[in-house]
Target: 3-dehydroquinate dehydratase
Amino acid sequence: LSILVLHGPNLNLLGQREPGIYGSLSLNEINRLLEEQARDLAVNIDFFQSNHEGFLVDKIHDSWGKHQGILINPGAYTHTSVALRDAIAGVNIPTVEVHLSNVYRREEFRHHSYIAPVAVGQISGFGAQSYILGLQALVYHLKS
Ligand code: DQA
Model:
C-alpha cells in the first residue's frame, strides 16, 4: 500500500506559526513521525505540501494509480475549496481528513468542511497525533 500525505497552505510554517494552537513541531518533524508510523504499518508513504490550491488539485489527480489512500490536512482550504473536494471525489481514492486543532471549538467559519463529505472520516484536535491517528485509521480502512 502507498499513502500520499497532503499538507495545505501555511502548514510549512508549523513550529513557528501560532504554536499555542498548532503545537511546536515543524512540518518535517511531523513527517518523520509519520514515516516511523508508516514503517510500523508496513506501508509506503509520500509527502507533499503546497500553499497553492491548484497544485494540491494536480497532486490529487497524479496520485491516481500510484497511491491507494490520501491523508490530507487541507488547512484553510478545508473551509473554502470546492475544487479540492471535487478532486478527491473525482479520483475516488479513500481519503482521511486531519486537523491539528479542534476546528469545532474555534471560529464559526472553521466549523464547515467542504472535504468531510467526500472523506472516509475526520480527526481533529489532537495536534501532531491527529496525523498519526489518521494514518492508522486510513490503513485500517484500506486493509479491512
Ligand atoms: C487546520 C485548521 C484550519 O482551520 C486552519 O486554516 C489551518 C490548520 C488545523 O490543522 O488545525 O491552516 O487545518
Summary: The chain has a mean pLDDT of 98.
